[in-house]
Design brief:
The chain is α+β, with helices and mostly antiparallel strands. It is built from 11 helices and 22 strands. The strands form 6 sheets. It has a 5-stranded mixed sheet with strand order 1-7-6-4-5, sandwiched between helices. It has a 5-stranded antiparallel sheet with strand order 20-19-18-21-22. Strands 8-13-12-11 form a 4-stranded mixed sheet, with helices on both faces. The two termini are 34 Å apart.
């Protein structure tokens, strides 16, 4: 048994917004954005947030892994709840043991790499999730540069795919950007100043220190994961004497900058493609810097293939509709009519009693007739046996569309409202709301996977409810 990274995962929303579409909509007011109008950025659907994206990354990371982590850490600067355990909701959604320790990490874009640097010194097995869903002011450079996404690492004792060589950290309160607790958007300083005073003075210190601690030269590093612009990477490569070709893809062209998740997302992509015995340097920047040096093992090849961000990069839906993007992000107040005026007050006492059924999609399998059903009930729907059901989650199952309706009158932030009956093997049939499908896309008999999403918002009381929805299969 050896300590290290046991698995990795990622999630990028399928929806992309073309940067040319942004320029076409607001270039009349901000023509300076023309220089950034290439490629696409990822966009969370209306029912996605940092929490739901972290669930998807966690599922990708734990898929096929026979390890039950006793600890879960969630890093984000855009946690949906300021006073509620966000990581606890994720633990339930992943159907993990409720005796596990959970913690929320925030306050800096380094939240994930700082946690990883701490884990590099050893400790318990942990599932580390990083996710950000940052909103941007229309017309800002962030509108072009930011993206939404999440990543995950499983760290602990076992058969690691990468082992830790060393880590180093610096705290420097260089305010390159910030967002106060009552603000909606980040405020950023001029990129050149941040590069010269931040990246080129703080980052080299931690990189040289981590290499010294590991006893390796910088020329021995195969991959550099650096969260920053291409210009910053070039300047650092020159400053440190590292071949720029060793700097990992920033995913900026297809995804954008996903904040806290970005270094881990890039690391997941490198791990998905790397060979054995390759050294990977991970750098986190933001009011200081973290540097973590790892080395892959032959075990890495056993979990590669389908894991990580690549399949999300390949399966995307590109839109150039900027007003659609603004509406999804709650920045365009469209009149959806009387049917959108309902009050969705949440009965928290009822939620507490049914929380595992809801968050874990926990149904029941009858011990007498093997029928699977949701929700779990006292009496089996097929053989009428009483108190005969064992809990079983349906969240990881593939279902089939039995019937569906595209409703253009019922309210949804992304019309049409698509709902219908989904059937699963061994009997379960559930009426569900669909997500990530476009009009005309759903067909009876289609296979669907389940994804954890926002069910609806209680706007009066600032609460949001979550549940599972059928979505298109990944390619």
């Amino acid at each position: 048994m050896t300590y290290g990274i046991l698995s990795f995962g990622a999630y990028i929303p399928p929806l992309r917004l073309s940067r040319q579409g942004i320029l076409s909509a607001i270039g009349w007011a901000v023509p300076s954005l023309r220089g950034l109008a290439a490629g696409e950025r990822s966009v969370a659907n209306w029912d996605e947030d940092a929490l739901t994206m972290a669930v998807e990354a966690g599922r990708d990371c734990l898929n096929g892994i026979d390890v039950v982590p006793p600890h879960l850490a969630l890093a984000s600067t855009t946690l949906p709840f300021a006073d509620r355990s966000n990581s606890g909701v994720i633990a339930d959604a992943l159907n993990l043991d409720n005796r596990m320790a959970t913690e929320d990490l925030a306050g800096s874009r380094r939240a994930a790499t700082s946690a990883l640097a701490r884990m590099a010194h050893g400790g318990q097995t942990s599932l580390l999730l990083a996710s950000d869903c940052r909103d941007t002011r229309p017309g800002s450079a962030q509108d072009m540069l930011y993206g939404h996404g999440a990543a995950a690492l499983l760290v602990g004792e076992g058969k690691p795919v990468a082992v830790f060589l060393a880590s180093a950290s610096r705290h420097e309160d260089l305010v390159d950007q910030y967002r106060s607790s009552d603000a909606d958007f980040d405020y950023s300083l001029e990129e050149r100043w941040v590069r010269e005073e931040g990246y080129l003075k703080i980052v080299p210190e931690v990189i040289e220190e981590v290499a010294q601690r590991a006893g390796v030269s910088l020329s021995d590093i195969d991959h550099v994961v650096l969260h920053g612009s291409v210009d910053t990477a070039r300047a650092l490569a020159k400053r440190l004497g590292i071949d720029i070709k060793r700097f990992a893809d920033t995913l900026g062209a297809k995804v954008g900058d996903c904040g806290v998740a970005q270094p881990m997302l890039m690391l997941a992509k490198v791990l998905a493609e790397a060979g054995a015995n390759e050294r990977i340097l991970v750098v986190g920047f933001g009011q200081g810097a973290d540097a973590i040096l790892v080395q892959t093992t032959p075990q890495l090849s056993t979990i590669q293939g389908g894991r990580g961000p690549q399949r999300y990069l390949e399966q995307c839906r590109v839109s150039d509709n900027y007003t659609y993007f603004l509406s999804l992000r709650g920045q365009l107040d469209i009149d959806f009519g009387l049917r959108s005026e309902r009050d969705n007050r949440t009965a928290l006492s009822a939620y507490y009693r049914k929380r595992r059924d809801i968050n874990s999609m926990l149904g029941g399998r009858c011990r007498v007739c093997n029928t699977l059903q949701f929700p779990r009930s006292l009496v089996c729907v097929k053989c009428a046996s009483s108190d005969s059901q064992d809990g079983e989650t349906l969240s990881n199952l593939t279902g089939r569309v039995k019937s569906f309706t595209e409703d253009w009158l019922a309210y949804t932030p992304s019309p049409p409202y698509i709902y219908g009956n989904v059937e699963f093997d061994d009997g379960a049939n559930i009426m569900l709301e669909f997500t990530d499908f476009t009009a005309g896309q759903v067909k009876v008999g289609d296979a669907v996977r389940m994804v954890f999403r926002i069910k609806d918002f209680d706007h009066k009381r600032k609460f949001r409810r979550y549940f599972w929805k059928p979505a298109p299969l990944l390619g």
